[in-house]
Amino acid sequence: RKVRLQGQSEIIRCMSGYFIQSVTSSLLSFFFCAILESRIPATMPLLKLTEIDEATRSFAEKVFASEVRDEGGRHEISPFDVDEICPISHHEMRQHIFCRESLFTSTEGRRSHPPKQGESTQIPTETLEFSSQVTVEDFEMVCKGLYRALCIREKYMQKSFQRFPKTPSKYLRNIEGETWVANENFYPVFTPPVKKGEDPFRTDELPENLGYHLKMKDGVVHLYPSEAAACKDEPKPLPYPNLDAFLDDMNFLLALIAQGPVKTYTHRRLKFLSSKFQVHEMLNEMDELKELKNNPHRDFYNCRKVDTHIHAAACMNQKHLLRFIKKSYHIDADRVVYSTQGKNLTLKELFAKLKMHPYDLTVDSLDVHAGRQTFQRFDKFNDKYNPVGASELRDLYLKTDNYINGEYFATIIKEVGADLEEAKYQHAEPRLSIYGRSRDEWSKLSTWFVTNRIHCHNMTWMIQVPRIYDVFRSKNFLPHFGQMLENIFMPVFEATVNPQAHPHLSVFLKHITGFDSVDDESKHSGHMFSSKSPKPEEWTMEKNPSYTYYAYYMYSNITVLNSLRKERGMNTFLFRPHCGEAGALTHLMTAFMTADNISHGLNLKKSPVLQYLFFLAQIPIAMSPLSNNSLFLEYAKNPFLDFLQKGLMISLSTDDPMQFHFTKDKAKFLGNSYLEEGPVGNDIRRTNVAQIRMAYRYETWCYELNLIAEGLKSTE
In Å, how far from its chain's centre is CA 597? Predict the structure, then answer.
């Protein structure tokens, strides 16, 4: 009887959950349809966007609250759950297999905007009914939603001089009935590679002072032609952010990724892409291998490999660090290297204080390797940056600001750079930290960089900003969040306006490619970024702002900064945050709007809509399975291979070698046509990637974009 009652209770609970989910889904469908109908007229063009009404904003807040409260459970933003049986139409697969005539033969399938590149018959020509696997009404709504989502990303990328691919841009213009024209004004600007014999630290050609007045307003640096203009609040006409528009776009995307028909459609398209790749491999594997064998000189070992996600404090391996510690002790045992409580210590005295001798150290006793004990423990992972568990050794060997002015750390990095140059085909993009605790951080870091002449032809650099405002505020280092933003961005603006007054920082910025936002994503702030959120200068509480709050103000300042630097002919910066390693799906949604590319992206597997959007926009993702295995996700469960099969733009990165794209150089690494998309941009002699594979990837991409275009045309 007890078992029977328990079974009945379980059935009732499941039925109740299904009823609630059904009602919620129905309400969401109603709101989402209202959003689309209010924005997209019955006739083309479809790009007219207005504000989301208060009811929709309120519903988006409820969806967000549900996600934060029930993360990991079955709710509106949880992974779309269906049977493992692939829901691909037999007709669609049959068309895919048997309609192939030759690899590079043009296809006469229905395309809204046929690509100009060498085409194969990889793209099926089936009807839309077989493509969507949803009702006609739902298919039209889905296409409208995906179309607007791509328009949102294109808008924010162009505004900030970050990258949006040409191919989807062509389809969007075709949908709107316009002719696509390449506009290089929206492209990012990178520092040219240093030529042989050229001094990378020269300061004799720095631009003159513009004399602008700088002022932080609502968390964003504003520029004024003069102090009088600042008093009148008349800033220069730069792309300052519009918070209300951003929140409207964010709420739209939040509703989109929770919409039932959109999840159904995107889930099935992703399943099809995965199966389609398997068919491609069966049909073309030997042809690809033959093409690679016929490619002279180039193989995996001598094609260029770039580690785009690596932290400078862990860029060396364990053996390298151990060897350097022993070498430094052998040479500098009697040198004063550390100061504590007003007392200066030699290296020998420091190790004596720690009750150890470098001769006795091993890789095991160094204990910087992240293992199973760090899984789901970000605090323990951070402790692994302390050799032998001693923070004193971390300060001495892995910091830029210490008693010896970061000399040991600079030497280690230069040794890593020398190893990269000797390997020739390996490159890295290490991250250095700016915390935002004080205004002089940039000055100290750039002085360390220039004084130690840290330059390597196989390295460029990024700045990472840890999201630890709560730590600084709790210790009264900062009065409010706005001060942290000012400490991070104001010195960079000052060096851009008047480079000659900040020569070291101006030179250092030439070697920087972008900004990263880092910290433990699994920590929830419980705060939803909205129009009711406090302004940065009003955020005086000790609580940390949300991921979206951080990302918005970093993106906004980078946008204004890039506009100013592009006017001056200087290099611009990309926003490339850690994202999707853990935490809420809103992190990935925010990155879709603001980031040029991201690191990790694991949680994309939880949202078919976001995963499909990342595929359509070809947003680069630097994935680190070995690092994830020690922190958040077991190696066997990592979605890296799944993302690869579906065609997402992914790369492998180390994250932390100690613990577990270049710019214009790309022309040298990848060929002069590397900016072109598809097989035309691939030089197999340099990349060692088969043209067959490139053609397949490009045609599959175009086919998915074409489905959206055709779905929107059917609404005319």
Answer: 3
Rounded Cα gap, residues 108 and 93, in angstroms: 18
3-state secondary structure 582-639: CCCCHHHHHHHHHCCCEEECHHHHHCHHHHHHHHHCCCCEEECHHHHHHHCCCHHHCC
Decide: helix, strand or coil at residue 223: strand
What's the burial of 683, exposed, middle or buried (CB within 10 Å: 0-12/13-18/19+)?
middle
The CA distances from residue 174 to 51, 179, 181, 698, in Å, are 25, 7, 11, 18
Looking at residues 344-358, what average pLDDT do you find?
90
Mean pLDDT estimate for the chain: 81
Residue 459 DSSP label: B
Q: Under 8 Å CB-to-CB from 538, ≥6 apart: which residues?
A: 480, 482
How far is it, in rounded angstroms, from Cα 701 to Cα 273?
10
pLDDT at 594 over 80: yes
Q: What per-residue confidence (pLDDT) applies to 583?
A: 85
pLDDT at residue 267 above 90? yes
* Rounded-to-integer distance, Cα 534 and Cα 547, Å: 15
Rounded distance, CA 252 to CA 149, Å? 8
Q: How many helices (H) and strands (E) does the chain have?
A: 27, 13
Cβ atoms of 322 and 363 within 8 Å: the answer is yes
User: What is the rounded average pLDDT of the residues 307-313?
Assistant: 84
User: CA nearest 126: which of 114, 110, 141?
Assistant: 110
Q: Tell whether the model's pLDDT for residue 377 goes beyond 90.
A: no
DSSP state of 655: B
Q: How far apart are CA 217 and CA 565, in angstroms?
A: 20
pLDDT tens for 665-703 read 556 667 777 778 888 888 888 888 888 999 999 999 999
User: Could you tell me which residue, 547 or 2, shows the higher pLDDT?
Assistant: 547
CA distance 667 to 676: 11
Measured between alpha carbons, how far is 166 from 369 in angstroms, rounded to an integer?
42
* pLDDT recorded at residue 125: 40
Cα 678 from chain centre? 22
Instruction: Identify whether the C-beta of residue 541 lies closer than 8 Å to the C-beta of residue 527.
Output: no
Predicted confidence band at 631 (pLDDT cuts at 50, 70, 90)? Answer: low
What is d(CA 652, CA 627) in angstroms, rounded to the nearest whole number? 11
pLDDT confidence band for 55 (50 / 70 / 90): low
DSSP H or E segment with residue 472: helix 469-474
Which residue numbers are catalytic?
A: 600
